[in-house]
Amino acid sequence: TVIDESERLNRFIANLLDMTRLESGAIVPNTALHDVGDIVGSALRRASKILGRHKISLELEADLPMLELDAVLFEQVLFNLLDNAAKYSPPDSTISIRSLREKDFVSLQVADEGDGIPPGELESVFDKFYRVQKTDHVRPGTGLGLAISRGFIEAMHGKIFAANRIDRSGAVLIIRLPIPA
């Protein structure tokens, strides 16, 4: 319990520092060409303890182009999305990670099997300190993870959106990053 709580406190402090850096304009991505699959794998390893009570479905296209991004910031974004999916979906449910190539963009989707996001709150989830009100099974959080994720993705010239799944209940968070020339 002490280790789990100290890890949670460490994530909380890191989120506060990241948000402060974003707001002050101190985040300058150190971009280079990276394989998205490698960063997804790294984020999954880092989040393995949080995801321990969930199944993971991974569907990454084999021929994805390299993307111009900051690997550290992008891994943090993926970690935040996975953490969020684990918080808002029941144990033994599946968290899916899927990639798609769309003309000049690569999309990465993280989908859960929770209750989804109320339609009027799809944009609000990216606000600082905002949390969707759910039942008692949701782990504590600060409401900073998605705000930080949006800031990091936009710093890398991408976009991030929230939606509800159309095939079942659950939320899906979609990252769109441009394919470099």
Give an account of the 3D structure:
- With 181 residues, the protein is of the alpha+beta class.
- It has helices at residues 2-24, 36-46, 71-87, 145-155; strands at residues 32-34, 55-59, 67-69, 94-102, 105-111, 159-164, 171-178.
- The strands form 2 sheets. The protein has a 5-stranded mixed beta sheet with strand order 2-4-5-7-6. A two-stranded antiparallel sheet has the order 1-3.
- Helix 1 packs across helix 4 (145-155) and helix 2 (36-46) crosses helix 3.
- It is globular.
- It starts with a helix and ends with a strand.
- The mean pLDDT is 86.
> Which strand order does the major sheet show?
2-4-5-7-6
Rg, Cα atoms, Å: 16 Å
Q: What overall form do the CA principal axes indicate?
A: globular
For the biggest sheet, the summary is: 5 strands, mixed
- Which stretches are poorly predicted, pLDDT < 50 over at least 5 residues? none
Q: Report the total helices.
A: 4
Strand segment count? 7
Strand content: 15-25%
Q: What is the N-to-C succession of helices and strands?
A: HEHEEHEEHEE
